[in-house]
Design brief:
Layout: E1 3-7, H1 14-24, E2 40-44, H2 48-57, E3 61-63, E4 66-71, H3 86-95, E5 98-104, H4 120-151, H5 157-172, H6 184-191, E6 201-206, H7 219-231, E7 234-238, H8 240-248, H9 251-261, H10 267-278, E8 281-287, E9 291-298, H11 303-310, H12 312-316, E10 318-325, H13 326-332, H14 335-340, E11 345-347, E12 357-363
Parallel strand pairs: 1-4, 1-5, 3-9, 5-6, 6-7
Antiparallel strand pairs: 2-4, 8-9, 10-11, 10-12
Bound molecules: guanosine-5'-diphosphate.
Guanosine-5'-diphosphate is lined by residues 8, 10-16, 74, 106, 108, 111, 206, 208-209, 239-241.
Function: ATPase that binds to both the 70S ribosome and the 50S ribosomal subunit in a nucleotide-independent manner.
Keywords: ATP-binding, Coiled coil, Magnesium, Metal-binding, Nucleotide-binding
GO molecular function: ATP binding; ATP hydrolysis activity; GTP binding; metal ion binding; ribosomal large subunit binding
């Protein structure tokens, strides 16, 4: 599956957040394939539609889909030059699909800040610069090699050089590669290099305990929002310490606690949704009497590939998918009505799955 990496300077609240993630955790029995890597936290993706489907179908069991966060060891200035855990850090980031950058917005005299003062934009720029420098080195090296290939009249080299030079210009300007305007071919070429700054970035503003309900009165949060807006990136507000407390509560107590805090959705749940969306992920459901279950697919995936999410045999032997949109099923209230209304469709190999599809697969074994 795809994973989002949690990064940030030391003492910004990463471990606290990651601890909340592992505490919130998943019921291991439902996810036998979930990784046992201690740096990976698997959480359930909250989805109100599951509750409704459970009411409609009354299954023995309901299983949400899961999402993985990876904890990435602290970065310091100079990481791209191998300072601190620099190289290992960058290698770990290369493995993730999106980056959640935790930014310290809370003020707490008792907790040292690495650069002596809480200054979120400086912090963000410190981290982003390390990522940019690492990419710059890689792109420059590659350009040197491709230039030689262009000289020896390698047909593909000219296109690659052009794509790399667009990215180079941005990096030299201390901007992330994801802002590059590339056509489809160029994007495919550049994707190949797994540049760190090509990965989508989410900013996680970690605010004080008394600030969550009214985070925008925090000047630091405003600054982070402004910065993120320039990049078209999303900002999630959390208080890592509170998330840790929420994660320890029983599900029934959580709702009450959130109401007391004056927020609708926990910061962690917001972060899960944001990371999921940023990665272009969506959910389909299977809804049988034994089990109602949510499954993750990548937007644009066709029916057989989506069947493969459950089991590779489903993909190999795929015949068709019987599909009803969640909204149609919820509105109708039961499957019989859906069928009468002609909203239960039989879809073939070319069908592109939609978020909220409720599906039965037909396949050869
Ligand atoms: P990391 O180095 O980024 O992993 O940071 P930690 O999660 O270890 O947090 C550093 C310190 O800041 C710890 O003492 C945390 O308890 C504290 N901390 C983290 N989040 C918050 C918060 O939201 N509010 C306050 N007041 N302290 C926090």
């Amino acid at each position: 599956g795809l994973t989002a990496g949690i990064v940030g300077l030391p003492n910004v609240g990463k471990s606290t957040l990651f601890n909340a993630i592992t505490q919130a955790g998943v019921e291991a029995a439902n996810y036998p394939f979930a990784t046992i890597d201690p740096n990976v936290g698997v959480v359930e993706v909250p989805d109100a539609r599951l509750r409704k489907l459970t009411e409609l179908v009354n299954p023995k069991k309901t299983i949400p889909t899961a999402f993985e966060f990876t904890d990435i060891a602290g970065i310091v200035k100079g990481a791209s030059k191998g300072e601190g855990l620099g190289n290992k850090f960058l290698a770990n980031i290369r493995e993730v699909d999106a980056i959640c950058q935790v930014v310290r917005c809370f003020i707490d005299e008792n907790i040292t800040h690495v650069s002596g003062k809480v200054s979120p934009i400086d912090d963000i720029e410190t981290i982003n610069l390390e990522l940019i420098l690492a990419d710059l080195e890689l792109v420059e090296k590659r350009i040197q090699r491709v230039q030689k290939q262009v000289k020896s009249r390698d047909k593909n080299a000219a296109g690659e050089l052009e794509a790399l030079e667009i990215v180079l210009a941005l990096l030299e300007d201390e901007k992330p590669a994801r802002l590059a305007e590339l056509n489809e071919d160029q994007a495919a070429i550049v994707k190949h290099f797994q540049l760190l700054t090509m990965k989508p970035m989410l900013y996680v503003a970690n605010v004080g305990e008394d600030e969550v309900a009214d985070a925008d009165s925090n000047e630091n949060v405003r600054l982070v929002r402004e910065f993120a807006a320039q990049e078209g990136a999303e900002v999630i507000i959390i208080c890592a310490r509170i998330e840790e407390e929420i994660a320890e509560l029983e599900p029934e107590e959580r709702q009450e606690f959130l109401v007391d805090l004056g927020i609708e959705e926990s910061g962690l749940d917001q972060l899960i949704h944001a990371a999921y969306n940023t990665l272009g992920l969506a959910t389909y459901f299977t809804a049988g009497e034994k089990e109602v279950r949510a499954w993750t697919f990548k937007k644009g995936m066709k029916a057989p590939q989506c069947a493969g999410v459950i089991h590779s045999d489903f993909e190999r032997g795929f015949i068709r998918a019987e599909v009803v949109a969640y909204d149609d099923l919820a509105a109708a209230g039961n499957m019989a009505t859906v069928k009468e209304q002609g909203r239960y469709r039989s879809e073939g190999k070319e069908y592109v799955f939609q978020d909220g599809d409720v599906v039965t697969f037909r396949f050869n074994v």
